[in-house]
Amino acid sequence: MKKIIKKENVLMILKDALLLLIKEPKLFIPKLLVSFLYSIVILVIPPLTISSFSTPSLELLKYVLFFMLFTILVAILDICINALYPFLVAEYFRLKKISFINAFHKLKERFVVAFFSPFLVEFFSMLIVIILAFSASAILFFLGKFAFFLSLLISLLVIFVISIIFYFIYPVASLEKFNLFSAIKNSIDCSKKNIKLVSKLALFSVFLSLLTFLLSFTLELSHGTLEKTIFFLIFVILRFFIAIISTYIYVLSPVSYVKYIK
Length: 262
Prior knowledge:
Helix content: over 70%
Structural class: mainly alpha
Order of helices and strands: HHHHHHHHHH
């Protein structure tokens, strides 16, 4: 397996990923489905949680627990879909067409590694992000705004570094015949050997992720000032936009890996 990209052309890789999505728009469908399911969680869980604190009851608690379980299942589905994209991208570059059925069968064969390697990475990454978020909140409370923004910048830097280190976790875990921890190790090695290119692609992906987060945060702040119909319309458009960006992010990594490394 070739592990060093000879021509570090970021624009070419970005273009290849975009052209793939234009030629195969059905690649958007899985992420649109996940976005729809997450939308249910976003709309239902906050009011349910508030109600459970203000007027607690066993019935409300059951609904909260149900939707918490629902959220976990959606997160599991999301990782499975992310693991599916490398198979779809590889099939496209090999046959110039894609089949969700073929990709699903290949995912089943590699499920333990293709699912659990990214799961471990995302789980520990989430723990780090949660710790950083709590730390930033504590710093804001005790040390003031300057220290808070400094900690926020450090947190973003840590997220960026994590994105670089594990940039190829999905394509390596899905496409290569490694065991669970070897897949993680080899994805790190692959990122290290292509550090310049990966840092640019990871920066682009983090930027898109932050953009979707800021849009969601802005919408949440304006929730109280907008009519319900307008809020719901903007919410639907935003969730659609997030699904499109998310698809592009998760296609970008396997495109760079399959076409320029593997």
